[in-house]
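Q: For a teaching handout, I want to show students what a protein-ligand complex looks like in token form. Below are the inputs, and the small molecule is magnesium ion. Please produce the holo structure.
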Amino acid sequence: MNDVAPASMISASTDAPIMHVPPADTLVLEARKLDFFYGKNQSLFGVDLPIERNKITALIGPSGCGKSTLLRALNKIYDLYPGQQATGRILLDGKDILSDRGSVARLRARDGDVQIDPANLDVSALRARIGMVFQKPTPFPMSIYDNVAFGVRLYHKKSKAEMDQIVERSLRRAALWDEVKDKLSSSGLGLSGGQQQRLCVARGIAVEPEVLLLDEPASALDPVSTAKLEETLMELRNDFSIVIVTHNLQQAARISDHTGFMFLGKMIEFRPTAELFERPQSTRTRDYVTGRFG
Amino acid sequence: MDRALRRKITNSIFVGLCGAATLIALGALVFILWSLVVNGIGGLDLNIFTMTQPAPGSVGGLANAITGSIFMCAIGMVLAIVVGILAGTWLAEYGGQTPYGHAVRFLNDVLLSAPSILVGLFVYEILVRPFHGFSGYAGAVALALLAAPIVTRTTEDMLTLQPNTLREAGMALGAGRGFVIRSVIWKAAGAGLLTGALLGFARISGETAPLLFTSLGNQFFSANLTQPMASLPTTIFQFALSAYDDWRRLAWVGALLIAVAVLAVNTIGRMLARETHRP
Ligand SMILES: Nc1ncnc2c1ncn2[C@@H]1O[C@H](COP(=O)(O)OP(=O)(O)O)[C@@H](O)[C@H]1O
Ligand SMILES: [Mg+2]
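A: Here is the structure, written as tokens, with magnesium ion included.
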């Protein structure tokens, strides 16, 4: 796989990434030396990303640097599109989830005879363990209740009473319950943008995933809704591990424990948030967090 | 002449042309509806629905034609909706970008504009001649062949309009692709799918040529789909060209009934769509 990357992108950053990796036993999800291809175009170059359990990990970087791509690799949603490929390792609880035959063959061609411990999950089961919230709210055209119950019904047969409880609990945890408790049977499409986004969070956590991935979840929201969403995420940290892509540096600084700065498809610097913002080691990171570019 | 003025003039000429075109189309429509009502309303009475077609000069109605049309349109629409929605879904969600998918789409577009008389002849060759007889089933199949391409096309267009993030959101919860399509995407595109079905119905409700080759017509009341079957368009065709005033009056009534049915089905469909889509 050395003939695919344009030379200009490789030379963009030749220095090794500055990685401050939390202890291995605290990690729930981990990407190692991940390459990603849209057809022939390579968008990620040997990216490492450790996700610590019950923490918020933020990804920052200029547009087009590969943040969304990395997120979409983590739950294999890219799998829907023929031509998109990941090579490398993604470990969920220490087991390889990228371990289909093609990707293993590509990995061995690149790195030699790597030891793989396959998780043997089918993709749908995997995605149920790694939830995702998108930039634009994506409520389903059904009632608020059915939106939240959607994922749960896929995997569990619950009684009405149990389901009621799950729906209420998820909506409470997403800080939406008080606003919708009297209209659970009305359409999710009728909510405001901020409410819709929290509905998507509730829907995502109702299936009790281990990791929740959020791709710029607040970029379509007003400041009040954004603050509410942030509060919600801070609460959710107690039960889930969260990865959030954000354009908003203050937001990353406010809510995250670890921050990764990406640039041109590479992880430049990954460190505890306060350190990265106060004492960035790479000049690129420094330029970005001080607002000199991007 | 300065630019702003010139732009203003061009603009008003264009708006004027658009307005005139709309007026012409609307005028034609109103004129058609008007002549249908004027000529048809007089003959509209209870006999129309209770009596079968008369011999010239005696009392009668259109019960046999109305029943036949309802039977064949209903069966034709069920077939067209099942085939069209599945085919449109396959084109939009699965194989639409493969060479086979492109071929299917092309052929569907050809069928979309195929003269209905060809469809009638085709069904005549595969269903009427081999079974030695005209039948209601053959008529229904001919109508289905005319409506299915419309439903297919509309379904594909409407599903393609749904954002990918909606599909991804469903699959990110652990749902399989087919399940997301059935439970989320079809629902999101519901009003559009219904529009496709309505367009299909509007197309077939007045078709005459394909029925002449397939269900033929039947002057008696018959609910037996294996036998020749009456229908409003074929009866109108027969009566309108006849020399008898009372038959010609019945033809006008039949035409009015078709127009009213299409209007009613469309209106009800739109209302349903709005109802289910209200947030
Ligand atoms: N569907 C796609 N097909 C081809 N290239 C893509 C696609 N999506 C993203 N890319 C490319 O991959 C790179 C990373 O994009 P992305 O992950 O969306 O960046 P970010 O989320 O950081 O703004 C960009 O150069 C972009 O052009
Ligand atoms: Mg992005």
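A: Two things your students might notice: The mean pLDDT of chain B is 93. The longest helix of chain B spans residues 3-40.
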